[in-house]
Amino acid sequence: MRAPTVTSVTCPVCGCLCDDLEVTVRDNRIVAVKNACAVSEAKFLSYHCHRQTTPLIRKDGQLKEASLEEAIQRSAQILTGASYPILYGWSNTSCEAIRVGVELAEEVGGIIDNTSTVCHGPSVLSIQDVGLASCTLGQLRHRADLVIYWGSNPWSSHPRHVERYTAFTDGRFQASTWRRYLARQDAAEAKKRVQRATVLASGKRVSVPPLVSRRLPPTMQRMERKMVVVDVRRTRSAEVADYFLQVEPNSDYELLQALRVLVMDGELDVEEVSGVPVEVLEEVADVMVNCSLGVLFFGVGLTMSQGKLRNVDAAISLVRDLNRRTKFLIMPMRGHFNVTGADTVFTWQTGYPYAVDLSHGYPQYNPGETSIVDILLRGEADASLVVASDPVAHLPRDAVKSLVGNPIIVIDPHVTATALMADVVIPSAFVGIEAPGTAYRMDHVPLPLKKLVEPPQGVLTDKEILQMILGQVRRLKGGVET
Amino acid sequence: MCGWRWGFMVKLRVSLLTGRTLEQGRGKEYGKLSEEYWRDVAVCEMDPEDMRVLEVKEGDGVKIKTDFGSVVVRAKESERAPHPKVVFIPYGPWANLLVNPRTQSSGMPTLKGIPAEVELAPGAEPQTLPKLLKEHYGRK
């Protein structure tokens, strides 16, 4: 008998939320997945490996198996006993679970923060300052004729973004640049072969190409879809692009401001900016001004380097200037599959998208003060609840040292570095594989996540576990469970 | 002797970038304790010319040091050179021993463009995740 195939499955990996996956299930096990990228395939086919299915509690310095009731009880005791607990993570779970998380944060009077804080948090701050001209990915797929990725490497971080939404997709009004890319690859291979032959014949090293080509390729002047990558290093995405602009590390701000000057027909009295010759910048500015609909996708290359939110300010301001000459849009490349949903639910519930302090009984928001890294560096938190995230693997060392100095509760289907350091570990079901839910794509389009297989016996969803902890916290505080 | 000049170990001042790679993304889905994750994340992509200067070969252990910490990872020749004096380590526990935790009141630590020094670490290889956690944070 043929194994049943589930169609239109939404992928719970990155902010693209590709919803065209086809998953084959046999005997409650995923045996094949179609249309998935390498990361998505690894998740669907390997999610059951390296997995803990029984709750753990640390006793005498060792994590030991415990019942779910014990783990819930211990978690509630830790949270009610703490005066300033952190509730962190949320980007890899459903909006439904996040909503319960916000309620729990309010009940225990803690800080609730999501992974935006070490991802696109500065972008959120900039958007609040400057605004954002944006749209859905569908519009860009059909209409954008100039696609710029700045400080982003979609080939690695969002592997199907280019294929589904930009350069390699056939839109209603814009054709795919796939064949042009193949032709360019063939030409590059031929060039490499000639270089190798030259080295073999002459025994001399061939000079390496310059970091920035002084001429834009002819394809950049054509009235058809073009892709440009601006980054500090030549990534795989840069090779896919029609043109790659290499900027010196920590100098994106200067390059963005230089482009603003050129877009507004100003002149620059220097030879180069951020390692890029001004004549090249002038040509790039011309391409930007002359497009019909351009889009600038920016990644954490802007938010994690010097300047942080000011880099994003400059990028948004460039797009604002471009809108005086043509039509241009801008969008952050959100990483985890539901980080946009976490921001959305936090905002809907508290008024603020991340780094929300509920310790006063009402929401306060001041990233830099109420954000997890700053709180940990100041040593103010005295307990933490980590849901669907791994801060021990992804925060700087000093912040992790502060985090592990206090009790940690982990709710996660994976065995993570944070779980190894935790006091309580409650394994949960994989959202989008073993549990349904809602997630927001990077363009703020909500999509349903499907349940494809049953979770292991006794393993509950994040939402159910959080509801149980919330109920126990209310019982311990003497309140009424609702 | 590899990586030595006049009795001194050669060091190179570089700019450290951290970021996502396809292999890192796949490795974390295989599991943070998996061989794949350790192999793909405890690495440092270097410019071939910089490797030649340091006399580092593909797979050698290299010690990276910043103002905030140091770590040993495996050298990997960059497929997309040239990027002289720029090294790249994928996001993960190894890179996070090196990054600048200060947020400049933005909430975001600095994870890219960090001044660093690289040198050959003869015979050394990256710690596994449990060993790293035990040494730096005291628990496993």
Question: How would you describe what is shown here?
Answer:
The complex is a heterodimer of chains A (482) and B (140). Chain A is α/β, with parallel strands linked by helices and 482 residues long. Chain A folds into two domains: 52-119 and 337-432 and 439-446 and 456-476, Rossmann fold (3-Layer(aba) Sandwich), CATH 3.40.50; 121-332, Dimethylsulfoxide Reductase, domain 2, CATH 3.40.228.10. Chain A has 19 helices and 21 strands. Chain A has helices at residues 38-46, 68-81, 95-108, 121-130, 137-143, 154-157, 161-165, 178-202, 236-240, 252-263, 278-290, 300-303, 309-322, 339-350, 372-378, 391-394, 397-404, 417-421, 462-476; strands spanning 5-9, 21-26, 29-34, 56-59, 62-65, 85-89, 111-114, 146-150, 226-231, 243-246, 272-273, 276-277, 293-298, 327-332, 356-357, 364-365, 383-387, 408-411, 424-426, 437-440, 446-449. A nine-stranded mixed β-sheet of chain A has the order 5-4-19-18-17-6-7-15-16. In chain A, strands 10-9-8-13-14 form a five-stranded parallel β-sheet. Chain A is globular, with a radius of gyration of 25 Å. The mean pLDDT of chain A is 93. Chain B has a single domain (4-137), classed as Barwin-like endoglucanases (Beta Barrel), CATH 2.40.40.20. In chain B, the strands form two sheets. Chain B has a six-stranded mixed β-sheet with strand order 4-6-5-8-3-7. In chain B, strand 1 and strand 2 form a beta hairpin. In chain B, helix 1 (22-30) runs antiparallel to helix 2. The radius of gyration of chain B is 15 Å and the shape is globular. The chains are: A alpha/beta (482), B alpha/beta (140). At the A-B interface, helix 1, helix 4, helix 6, helix 9 and helix 12 of A face strand 3, helix 1 and helix 4 of B.
